[in-house]
Design goal:
The chain contains six helices and no strands. The chain has 89 residues and is mainly α. It has one domain: lambda repressor-like DNA-binding domains (434 Repressor (Amino-terminal Domain)). This is XRE family transcriptional regulator.
C-alpha cells in the first residue's frame, strides 16, 4: 500500500463514515457520544480535523469495530467484516 499520509487520513475518515452509516447512526449521535458538536464531528469524517489515537479508539468503540480495522481496511472490507454483527445503540 503506497498511500500518502493524507490519503491514509482520508481513508480512515471514509471508513468511519461508512461504518457509521452502516450502523444507522447519525453524526449527531456520534457527536453526542464523543461530547463534541455535530459540526466538529462532521470535520472528522471529512478529514478536515486530524484525530488523536484516543479519539480513534473512542470512535471505534462507539461503532463497535476494532480501531486497527479502521486504519487498515477499506470501507467495503469493513462492511463485509461487520455484516453479521448486530446494530445496537
Amino acid at each position: 500500500m503506497n498511500q500518502t499520509i493524507e490519503e491514509r487520513i482520508r481513508t480512515v475518515a471514509a471508513n468511519i463514515r461508512k461504518i457509521r452509516e452502516y450502523r444507522d447512526y447519525t453524526q449527531e449521535y456520534l457527536a453526542m457520544k464523543l461530547g463534541i458538536s455535530q459540526n466538529a464531528y462532521s470535520k472528522i469524517e471529512l478529514a478536515y480535523t486530524r484525530i488523536t489515537v484516543e479519539r480513534l479508539i473512542q470512535i471505534s468503540q462507539i461503532l463497535e469495530v476494532d480501531s486497527v480495522d479502521l486504519l487498515q481496511s477499506t470501507s467495503d472490507e469493513l462492511i463485509r467484516l461487520h455484516a453479521g454483527h448486530s446494530k445496537t445503540y
